[in-house]
Amino acid sequence: MPEVIRSIEINASPSTVWRWMATQEALRQWLSPNLEIVSEGELILSWLEEGGDWVHPARLLIRLAPTAIGTRVTLSHEGFAGIGKSGWSKTVDAYERGADRHRILQRLAELVEAGSVSRQ
After folding, report:
1. Of residues 2, 29, 32, the one with CA closest to residue 118
2. What CA–CA distance (Å, rounded) separates 11 from 69?
3. How many CA atoms lie within 13 A of 77 on its CB side?
4. In what side-by-side order are the strands of the sheet with 58-66?
5. Are the beta carbons of 42 and 22 closer than 8 angstroms?
6. Could you give the CA distance from residue 100 to residue 68 in angstroms, rounded to a whole number?
C-alpha cells in the first residue's frame, strides 16, 4: 500500500521526545495548530483533510525508537487508497512533496533540542 514516510534522528532520549507528542498543546507547536488527538495505544491519528474530497480518513503514525545518540522519529501517512477519492495516487504525490516542504520533523527536532515543552 502506498505511504509517505519521513524520519529524523534527534539528539535526545525517547522520553524527552515523547513529551512533544504526549499533549495536544505540544503537538500543535510542531505538527498542526488545529490538531485533535485520538490515541490508540501508540500515537496513531486519524488524518482527514479539511475541506477536501476525502470520504474516509487516512492514518498518521508517529513512532519512536532509541538509537545510539538519541531517538529515531518516524512519521508515516498511510491508507491513501482507502480515502474514497478516485485520484488518491495524486494525493500520495502531493504528500511526498509536502512532507519535505513543511519540514515537520525538523521543527520537532529544533523544539526538542531547544528545551522544554511550552504551554500555549
Report:
1. 29
2. 6
3. 23
4. 3-10, 71-78, 58-66, 43-47
5. no
6. 25
User: What is 1-20 written as a DSSP string?
Assistant: --EEEEEEEESS-HHHHHTT
Provide the terminal-to-terminal Cα distance of the chain, rounded to the nearest Å.
37
User: 81 is written with which cell numbers?
Assistant: 487508497
- Over the stretch 55-69, which tens digit does the pLDDT of each residue have? 998 888 888 888 899
| Number of helices (H), then strands (E), in the chain | 4, 4
CA 111 to chain CA centroid, Å, is: 15
- pTM of the complete model beyond 0.85: no
The class that CATH gives domain 3-114 is alpha beta
Mean pLDDT throughout 106-115?
90
